[in-house]
């Protein structure tokens, strides 16, 4: 058993070290959007915690309207509620545990997909990186609530004339998601240009030149190795032909030409 663990450790060690090296290289490469991602996520969780402590719960099913506190008069107010559905309280059903589990799975898969996309398009401009950072931060903020609480803590609501037609209660994570989706749409429509030759991992500038030079050297060496037997075969075949011609009394063309040239030189001299 110990030998199997040791063998597994020895085989897995290079992959684990390589993964962390690449992760650290990416963190240094994209530290600005990653910092914004972490900041938005932290701000979302902190504001949710403060709202849960300071505000009375507003619950439609339990008959409690809670309390509303004006933040910006006739525009934005605080009202704390538990959201068992998706963003802005849509499709909420507090009695459906299966639906909540399905929401966690779907949102987790989407978050992983956006994380992969953020790494895949890391060579694009800062606008796209910011868009992915906002989307991932919003998704992770709500996933955290659903996984550990079973619901999402919402506490922001528009008031005044905006609240008359948009009465949903939301949170910072929902705002980050909406902002990120809008930025991503603008980038895809107006800024994104597909790259024909995608290199993949970040490489030095002269990496391609070194690779092409090495490929040329390899091809030259391969051609030399391949041509050498062929040249040897041709040389052997010519020697065999000359021996056969001498046995039959056929003069060697090259020797005849050389002798003729020597005769002309003597005549001229």
Description:
By secondary structure, the chain is of the alpha+beta class. The chain has eight helices and four strands; from the N terminus they run H-H-E-E-H-H-E-H-E-H-H-H. Strands 1-2-3-4 form a four-stranded antiparallel beta sheet. Strand 1 and strand 2 form a beta hairpin. Helix 2 runs parallel beside helix 4 and helix 3 (97-120) packs antiparallel against helix 4 (126-148). The protein starts with a helix and ends with a helix.
**Euclidean distance between termini CA atoms:** 95 Å
Q: Percent of residues in helical segments?
A: 55-70%
Taking Cα atoms only, what radius of gyration do you get, to the nearest Å? 37 Å
Strand order of the largest sheet: 1-2-3-4
Query: What is the total number of structural domains?
Result: 2
The helix/strand class is: alpha+beta
Total E-strand runs: 4
Proportion of strand residues: 5-15%
Q: Give the overall shape.
A: globular
Figure out the total of helices.
8
- Report the major sheet: 4 strands, antiparallel
């Amino acid at each position: 058993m110990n030998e199997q663990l040791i063998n597994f450790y020895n085989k897995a060690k290079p992959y684990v070290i390589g993964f962390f090296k690449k992760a650290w290289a990416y963190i240094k490469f994209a530290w600005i959007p990653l910092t914004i991602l972490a900041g938005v996520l932290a701000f979302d969780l902190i504001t949710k915690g403060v709202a849960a402590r300071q505000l009375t719960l507003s619950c439609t099913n339990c008959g409690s309207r809670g309390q509303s506190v004006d933040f910006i008069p006739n525009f934005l107010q605080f009202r704390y509620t538990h959201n068992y559905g998706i963003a802005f309280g849509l499709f909420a059903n507090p009695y459906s545990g299966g639906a909540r589990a399905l929401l966690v799975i779907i949102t987790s898969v989407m978050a992983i997909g956006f994380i992969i996309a953020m790494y895949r398009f890391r060579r694009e401009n800062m606008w796209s990186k910011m868009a992915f950072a906002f989307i991932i931060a919003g998704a992770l903020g709500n996933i955290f609530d659903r996984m550990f609480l079973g619901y999402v803590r919402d506490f922001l609501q528009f008031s005044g004339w905006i609240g008359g037609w948009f009465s949903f209660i939301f949170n910072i994570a929902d705002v980050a998601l909406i902002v990120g989706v809008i930025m991503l749409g603008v980038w895809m429509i107006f800024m994104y240009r597909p790259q024909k030759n995608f290199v993949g991992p970040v490489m030095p500038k002269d990496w391609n030149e070194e690779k092409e030079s090495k490929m040329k050297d390899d091809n030259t060496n391969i051609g030399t190795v391949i041509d050498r037997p062929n040249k040897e075969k041709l040389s052997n075949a010519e020697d065999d032909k000359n021996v056969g011609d001498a046995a039959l009394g056929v003069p060697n063309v090259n020797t005849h030409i050389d002798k003729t040239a020597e005769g002309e030189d003597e005549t001229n001299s």
